[in-house]
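Hello forum,

I keep getting stuck at the same step: I have a sequence, I want structure tokens, and every attempt I make locally crashes halfway through. Rather than fight my setup again tonight, could one of you with a working pipeline run this one for me? It's a single chain of 439 residues.
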Amino acid sequence: MKPLVAIVGRENVGKSTLFNRLAGKNKAAIDDLPGLTRDRNYAEVRCEGGEFILIDTGGFEPHRTDTLSGQIRAQTRLAIEEADSIIFLADGKSDLTPSDFTIVRMLQSTRKPVLYVINKIDRVREQSNVADFYRLGVEPLIPVSAWNGSGIADLMAAVIERLPAATEEEPPDVSVKIAIVGRPNVGKSSLINSLAGDRRLVTDATPGTTRDAVDTIVSFNNRNYLLIDTAGIRRKSRVSVTFEKFCIIEALKSLDRCEVGILLLDATEGVAEQDAKIARFIYEKGKGCIIAVNKWDLMPQDRAQLREYLDTVRFNLPFLEFAPVLFISALTGQRVTELLKTASMLCKHYHRRIQTRLLNDLVRKATERHLPPRVKNKALKFYYAAQIAEGPPHFVIFSNIPSAVPESYRRYLINSIREHFGFKGIPLRLSFRDRKKEA
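Reply #2:
Ran it on my machine without issues. Output:
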């Protein structure tokens, strides 16, 4: 396993900016507003001399008593326990605070290598600001500017110097990559915590608790599943600050990384307009889809209620008619493992290939059963079909007038392929081409 390095410090000292600078990509949400990073966020860092996993953490405020600050402290302590080396980050443009002293003493008690870094030293004349931080009683102090990159090379060299040797153990193979998406406060982090069996992610009743996409690997039935938790996608009218826009982009990027998307709905709120928009994201990106109705433990437990709710889901999300619907409770664990079983099945279909001979037999029988329409008194003909891609499966049919195939007939052929070959939960792609142009 690669060694782990955690960045720790109080709110708004620039941890996420430093994380992005060291990781070489904008993976963590950054803004001038304090408290944006709440969960542990991970990135692989490769540089000359070594590789390591970098962990970003939320703002550690040891003297606050609110529930969310307590959860962030717990997450930060977990990151410190996981880490082989720690970067303590302080704000070089502000005075030392009691929180800085408390954090430093806590890190000294870990007996792990700690680098003490003073951030926001953006100009040469600000170097004198570093002197005040010797009151912490630790050294050496490394001045950097995560914003403009000064001092980063020295910091990276110090990090590499203190890393333990990487072990030869291979990371677990991941069978299925799953992104969990939905509106804020539908229970995405609670669901991952239920599947992982621990308090892996911060959960809170306040909408929007998760701000960055976070990865978790869970094992079930001798298979490993990568679960990608995402920030809740808000309605555009409510996206008023930069970091919320970033979270939408991050959620969409998470769908790019997955094979199966779990659209999480809140059973107590029904299917909202924003749920349909998120569902459209999954469909347009061609991902396998499971519709999971969370908080079902709060609903009347009878078949009539379930059937009525299922009809509502199908009515409001008609373009996901192929997606299985599961009624779950992340809080009680009700049917949550069914999500993994279903995702495994969908992943198999996602990468499935159909023999050309079998596909053409199916298209021939489908067109005989329901003749293609005539176009300007001319017969619409289909010559042969082939699968040109997987993930998702994409089929092409060569025709004499490909541009004239009605959408209704295209849907008929897609449904015929899906039903005959047993594709479940996967959006199928079907296009038409001119045989003459291909020749």
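The chain has three domains: 4-161, 176-350, 356-438. If your local run keeps crashing, start a new thread with the error log.
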